[in-house]
Amino acid sequence: MEHIAEAGSEQLDAVLDLVAALAVRVRGNASEALDVVSRIDALCDRLQGVRMDLLHEAQVSGEPGLSAAERLHATNRVSLSSSRRDVRLACDLSDRFSLIAQAWRDGVVSGQQARGIVAGLKHLPVAMTRLQLDACQTELVGFADRLDPDELRVVAERMAEVIDPERAEALEADRIERDARIAHARRALVVVPDHQGSMLIRGQVPIADGELFLAQLTALTPSAASYRLTGELPDRSARRADALVRWCGIAAASGQLPATGGDRPQVLVTLGLEALVHGMGAGTMLASGEPLSAGEARRLSCDAHITPTVLGGASEVLDVGRTHRFFTRPIRAALVLRDQGCVFPGCDAPPAACEGHHTRPWWSGGTTCVSNGVLLCPYHHRLVEPDPNRSAQVQWQILIDPGNGLPWFTPPRQIDPARAPRLHHRFLLRGTGPPPSQEQDWARSLPQVARDPQ
Asked: Which segments of 62-129 does DSSP mark as H helices, in order?
């Protein structure tokens, strides 16, 4: 047996050498390179089909007490969960879906198409005869040149309409009901810190609840254009994360969340006075004990739904912020009337998704009033929150025009060397004049030697 394996290994190595040589020959020619990629994919698919046969053989003829999946995992090249999935599929192909297995080995279907077909067919009635199951497989293999793996799975799930059209509707209803029960039983949401500055969120919900969740999240997802001036080009997953934060802000601002112990949900943050004023040190999220950067603590200290506890040098409590000390309902109502949403140029976040921001930080003596406040979404609030350890020239600055009360944004010099003030497009039709030219008084206390903006 060892001689057979060695001979086969030498032949496979020879094939790999030929493919590597072919890859060298097509360098510089995109069309030919993609053609070779397609041929390699087809070859890999056929090899994977043969691999499935070998996995089934190893499972049925292996030594008792040690499964093929465990032996495969022992090579350290594949996880145990992946090994078990592959062995289950190999057994399904051999026991029930032999025509799909043959089409996979022959290169008629790809590995992904084969997996999609099997996943769909496993939803069909168990009472199906062998002839009926073979008829389904033959039909589906015929669609392989026209349908992708997901489409083949959907068609496979509906093959009962071909096999038993009279009972198809009832069978489909039973399947959907069974799936709904399973989905409800499996619903879960896990939220845990990764201890590296992030919170990991993963879970699953029934499809109807998931569609509702996705619809709301999509409505709140910022447009790519709203990030244009930030120097960042986040992908859709990052923008959806920002949308989830918006959603939490809307819920927090609604005043309709249930009270616990007589109080509304809020976040408690402890931070040292040095961290608050000078950016030295860090804060702590009281609920989880996770550390929080000084910049994040300063941003959170602006918001009405955060209660910062300021500690002195010996950790004595110097001040406990109360929600009514921050942007009160009347002040917020005035900001909503004036700003109509996030005022950062290009952002489309609605007022309910925004936080109040002091243009002159309250840690620098700024007051909580309409003339010193603007609405910002959490993403842009984090972007413009001043850092006392960096030069004003490398930070965004906001100046409220004393004449009309509109907020102008001066970009950092790494984004615009001229630092030309910007105004949100929603204010451009209000008869605005030139931007104010005076510098914010508090900004003069920041370092005048620009540091690396990164």
From this structure: 68-73, 80-95, 98-106, 111-121
Task: Find the helix or strand (DSSP H, E) in which 409 lies.
Answer: strand 407-410
Question: Does some domain include residue 276?
Answer: yes
Residue ranges of alpha helices (H) inside 319-442 are 329-339, 378-384
Query: Based on the domain organization, do 289 and 382 belong to the same domain?
Result: no
User: CA 278, CA 272: separation in Å to the nearest integer?
Assistant: 10
Interval 143-168: pLDDT, tens: 999 999 999 998 998 887 777 777 77
Place of tokens 């049925």: 60
Residues 450 and 365 in one domain: yes
CA distances to 73, 86, 128, 143, 265 from 136, rounded to whole Å, are 34, 23, 10, 11, 55
451 phi and psi, to 5 degrees? Answer: -95, 170
Half-sphere exposure of 73 (CA within 13 A, CB side): 14
For the cut 70, the answer to whether the pLDDT of residue 310 exceeds it is: no
Tokens encoding 135: 């008829």
Angle between helices 80-95 and 111-121 (to 10 degrees): 70
- For residue range 315-358, what is the model confidence (pLDDT) as tens digits? 443 444 434 446 777 788 888 888 989 999 988 888 888 888 98
Q: Which residue has the tokens 């949401």?
A: 189
- Helix (H) and strand (E) counts in the chain: 16, 11
Identify whether residues 152 and 207 lie together within a single domain. Answer: no
448 domain-assigned? yes
Q: Are 339 and 351 in contact (CB under 8 A)?
A: yes
Q: Are 146 and 273 found together in one domain?
A: no
List the one residue out of 134, 175, 183, 132 whose CA is nearest residue 157: 175
Name the residue type at position 306: I
| Domain limits for position 205 | 188-220
Please indicate, yes or no, whether residues 319 and 340 belong to a single structural domain of this protein.
no
Calpha distance 139→131 (Å, rounded)? 12
Q: Which residues of 353-390 are buried (b: 16+ CB within 10 A; e: fewer)?
A: bbbbbbbbbbbbebebebebbbbbbbbbbbbbbbbbeb
Instruction: Mark whether 430 and 405 lie in a shared domain.
Output: yes
Q: Shortest CA distance to 318 belongs to which of 305, 326, 328, 309?
A: 309
| Angstrom distance (rounded) from CA 348 to CA 269 | 29
User: Residue 408 phi/psi, 5° resolution?
Assistant: -105, 140
Residue 242, in any domain of the structure: no
